[in-house]
Amino acid sequence: MSASHPPSVVRGAYYPSWSYESVNPSKIDFSESHFTHLFYAFVNPDPTTFDLVITSDDKPILSDLVSAAHNRSPPVMVLLSIGGGGVAAVFSNMSGAEDTRSRFIRSTIEVARENDVDGFDLDWESPKDAAEMVNLGLLFEEWRAAIDSESATSGQRPLLLTAAVYFSNRFFLPGDVPRYRFLFVSIAKNLDWINAMCYDYHGSWDTSATGEHAALYDATSNVSTSYGLTSWTSSGVPRQKVVMGLPAYGRSWKLKDAAEHGIGAPAVGVGPGVYDSGTGSAYAYKGTEWVGYDDSRSVTQKVRYAEAKGLGGYFFWALGQDLNWILSRQGMASRVFNS
């Protein structure tokens, strides 16, 4: 029993349901194969029965997204992203016993086939202790077995199984409650790949100084995309099963002194470029307003880094934040993962 072979490349993006008005699926730029996979965010299990629920609001949006994606050539796959913020307690309760895990898993497969989606992406933020990590590993194992069994019985292609995970293989940023490592063996064996959330390293929880919230490199600490991705690949998760996250948004600060405006400049709060190749990030400022973000140059540097390291690809959070598809096009145009 093992995960399906990962695709040759992942060029993905999350599609939040709240983006529907601004980015109708019919308006998504699928030209030039910018995307191979889209993740519909978010759907969740019923907190009592643990059956996966597609709400009446989600149903037409998901249907439009699947139709638009599958009508491409080649088709773009659509996965259900299950979770997001605020549902950790539901996952904790569901994963704690075999019968509740089984009910959840069975319902996910039924929902996937009913809605013609291609798989699942679990976004549990985050298991709080070692016991929940064990339960997460069991969930992955039993989910994979059920997917393989259903595929063998139905004759249909196995559903994909992925997970959105912390940028590093362990939790250590200020404010992180968990201090437990993921179960790498279960991840490597049972998942098609992981989506490493390589962003939000700095933000409103630390207003004392500016910080690139998705820096590729940081010479002074382990708070960087390069460190996080290396921690995953060195833990036994195959490189081709590690997919790098890219933010399509920025984080802003209000500077303490307009004359000090570099990365790490003193700030007095959260709040505009300069490209910093040393960190693989960009920032802009005007007066006391400062914002760090990814631009076409940093996306190029990061995607080429992922290729050089043999990673499985990249994804963006999120559609609706990439004006005129500039970053999505740059990711595809970086001569990377195009073969």
From TrEMBL:
CC per GO annotation: extracellular region
This protein's name: GH18 domain-containing protein
Record's keyword terms, sorted: Glycosidase, Hydrolase
GO BP field: carbohydrate metabolic process; chitin catabolic process
Alphabetized PROSITE patterns for the sequence: GH18_1, GH18_2
Superkingdom, natural source: Eukaryota
The species this protein was found in: Acorus gramineus
Family: Belongs to the glycosyl hydrolase 18 family.
CDD domains assigned: GH18_plant_chitinase_class_V
GO molecular function annotations of the record: chitin binding; chitinase activity
UniProt keyword Protein transport, yes or no: no
SMART domains assigned: Glyco_18 (SM00636)
Record-annotated GH18 domain positions: 9-339
Annotated PANTHER family: CHITINASE, CHITINASE 12-RELATED
